[in-house]
Write a structure and sequence with these properties.
- Keywords: Transferase.
- Helix content is 23%, strand content 35%.
- By secondary structure, it is α+β, with helices and mostly antiparallel strands.
- The protein has a domain at 2-123: 3-Layer(aba) Sandwich (Aminopeptidase), CATH 3.40.630.30.
- An 8-stranded mixed beta sheet has the order 1-2-3-4-5-6-8-7, sandwiched between helices.
- The structure holds coenzyme A (COA).
């Protein structure tokens, strides 16, 4: 397990799947705002790749996020689009509704940076998020990510096009353990 100050990132367990499905993936608004594809129902027990992890998929590393104190599941995190030639990847995360606004998101970004830069030896990490996702923007910026551009009308979200912000962090600019 990878440890931050408040949360740990561990492998996906079978028991996590119904909770993540009910609280994150079946919330159509949350799903539509955080995934760039249309929501559709997932059949219980199916091997849908959004929840069931394929360990052989090298460029996509999903984690379940747990509280360090007690081990309760609080969400998901992923390093995706890993490009070992350009040494870059994207990060993504989603917390259960009752677990937001407690500093966990900022901590998850810190742990994903450690995984990307230290464990995987990457040079650049990138985040794309909706321009009105203030919690995500702040969690990224607290870890040193800088806004590199606005992708105008790049996301179709429940009936309208919204802007996305692209943020990047380079290994040499990353300061571990200083989220301030
Ligand atoms: C986005 C998300 C991961 C952020 O994690 P979080 O644990 O809620 O965020 P934190 O508690 O670490 O807060 C980060 C910062 O955002 C601020 N913040 C939190 N919720 C906020 C809100 N609703 N509006 C404005 N600012 C907010 C916090 O005050 C904090 O700022 P500070 O460091 O200056 O105090 C989480 O809210 C979430 O899972 N949302 C739904 C899924 C999603 O949007 N995923 C990202 C898709 S790209």
């Amino acid at each position: 397990m990878l440890r931050g100050g408040k949360v740990g990132l561990r492998a996906r367990h079978e028991d996590d799947i119904p909770i993540l499905r009910a609280e994150l993936y079946d919330d159509v608004v949350n799903y539509s705002r955080s995934q760039s594809r249309p929501w559709r129902p997932i059949t219980p027990g199916s091997k849908d790749s959004q929840l069931v992890v394929d360990d052989k998929e090298e460029g996509h590393v999903p984690f379940s996020v747990v509280e360090l104190d007690g081990g309760t599941l609080v969400g998901t995190a992923v390093l995706w689009g890993i490009d070992n030639h350009n040494r870059s990847a994207h990060i993504g995360l989603g917390l259960l509704p009752s677990c937001r606004g407690k500093g966990y998101g900022t901590d998850v970004v810190a742990v994903l940076c450690h995984y990307g830069f230290v464990v995987r030896g990457l040079q650049r990490l990138q985040i794309e998020t909706l321009a009105d996702n203030y919690a995500m923007l702040r969690a990224a910026e607290r870890n040193g990510f800088v806004r590199e551009g606005v992708l105008r009308s790049s996301a179709w979200v429940l009936g309208e096009f919204l802007d996305e912000v692209l943020l990047g962090l380079l290994a040499q600019d990353w300061k571990p353990n200083t989220q301030g």
